[in-house]
Amino acid sequence: MVICCAAVNCSNRQGKGEKRAVSFHRFPLKDSKRLIQWLKAVQRDNWTPTKYSFLCSEHFTKDSFSKRLEDQHRLLKPTAVPSIFHLTEKKRGAGGHGRTRRKDASKATGGVRGHSTAATGRGAGWSPSSSGNPMAKPESRRLKRAALQGEAAPRAAREAASQEQAQQALERTPGDGRATTVAGSQGKAEVSAADAGKESPTSSVEGAVADKSGISVEDFTPPGSGACKFIGSLHSYSFSSKHARERPSVPREPIDRKRPKRDVEPSCSGSSLGPDKGLAQSPPGSSLTATPQKPSQSPSAPPADVTPKPATEAVQSQHSDASPMSINEVILSASGACKLIDSLHSYCFSSRQNKSQVCCLREQVEKKNGELKSLRQRVSRSDSQVRKLQEKLDELRRVSVPCPSGLLSPSREPPKMNPVVEPLSWMLGTWLSDPPGAGTYPTLQPFQYLEEVHISHVGQPMLNFSFNSFHPDTRKPMHRECGFIRLKPDTNKVAFVSAQNTGVVEVEEGEVNGQELCIASHSIARISFAKEPHVEQITRKFRLNSEGKLEQTVSMATTTQPMTQHLHVTYKKVTP
Ligand code: HEM
């Protein structure tokens, strides 16, 4: 981004010309009071500065900078306010596009800041043509006030000639004589912030548009800012009402005798008095003491005929003729109100800033809300995943705990195996069919099934078992049986007692040899309504194969079929 100077008719931009010859300074956006001073000085219509707006160093007096080292940019003082502007453009020739004539108003008025020469000169050179110019109004008022407060009136008279020159110099600034400096008695300079470029010089003479406050509303208020207009009108009200109220009580005396010198009000200087109030249109000498409430006295006074008079004289004559209140009284009484009103302007401006900040924040909040929504969706997905994992975990716990009853081993230590069942210890554990079991029978289509087997003990001289089969695809429970395996102590004789969900109970007996158990049905019973064909004989063989897998083979004879293999399944151990 190229940094450009925001001042009217200033074409300075970064990189142009000698490096470091011109520095650029941001508008004090966070200091609303000072910002208003800047905006008044810049005098751009319908324009609001942003953080990318700059003024170049050419619009500041030298004493606005605290230091300027060889290798450093200028450092602007925190209280600095721009004062040097060239608000009208003058072309150098026909069709020329010449650079704006840079005319430092302070030079035009003798280059003296903090002296009343310019001010009194302004007063001396006052004329209807100049007073009618709205651009010049605040200027004139400041000048007058400065003269009133800062210098003795006789001096004004003495310097009338030079003042006139200064005035002429001011008015050489095409159409307005805007940029200039004004000084108070304590040598403080103040920069006029009269309106800029709104009207042509001639039209502005008659069409003075600055309000009574002396601050043209358009000076720093974007169009449509009703609040600022309203506040601007308060200036007028404060002035006139104050004046009207205090007027009777103010003693009639020249101000320079009784009143201490005071500075021009920084924010309201020139604001209280305008040409339309009589002061600015008064003859030059009387500009020091004009009575705002008596407009009839001044407007018709032909400037060419006016002979500058000593200010004190003027003061006395004005007071005795028209008003018991001196101009200083007026200024003093109005200044407090003006300060207050100016602070309202600050509020106005900062509230506009706040509005844009609110918009910004609103966008951020909307963005964050969007992020929050997507985060909530992710959390919801995660929650459902956690739930599924929890279910799986619960299932695994059910499978892996051989003895779900906490009554048996509160200490969670496994019960010590009874030595009687030790020959069958190879059968202990939880087993899962792997691969799926294979079902056959002459009367049946071959089928597959899954089976989970638990064989455990609780310290008793027997094993507990359960066989639970499931459909391989649907996982629907199928055949189930459970029971006990007993060993005849000190023998390898084994009794296998089983109850089946088909309504069959049976006892099989046989022998255990090594890691193989062969048993055959000893007795079979069933419920009365058991499904036919009924099983009449059953044989089983368990063995632990060389791979450490458990195998079971079941054969049976029914009322319709001889002994034939019905099942074969291999299990892998899933617990230690
Ligand atoms: C020792 C245990 C078992 C006995 C005594 C037994 C007995 C029988 C009998 C008597 C039949 C009728 C056969 C026919 O209709 O001709 C039958 C059928 C069947 N058995 Fe078994 N069975 C046993 C274990 C199993 C197991 C573990 C499964 C595995 C899922 C199974 C699955 C079947 C199927 C699918 C049929 C055919 C449909 C049916 O009748 O329900 N059987 N079984």
TrEMBL record:
Which parts of the sequence belong to the THAP-type domain?
1-85
Which one of the record's GO molecular function terms can you name? zinc ion binding
Query: Which pathway does UniProt place it in?
Result: Nitrogen metabolism
The family database entries (Pfam families) matched by this protein are listed as: THAP (PF05485), THAP4_heme-bd (PF08768)
Which SMART domains does the record match to this protein? DM3, THAP
Family according to the record? In the C-terminal section; belongs to the nitrobindin family.
Q: What is this protein called?
A: Peroxynitrite isomerase THAP4
Task: Cite the source lineage.
Answer: Eukaryota, Metazoa, Chordata, Craniata, Vertebrata
Q: Gene behind this chain?
A: THAP4
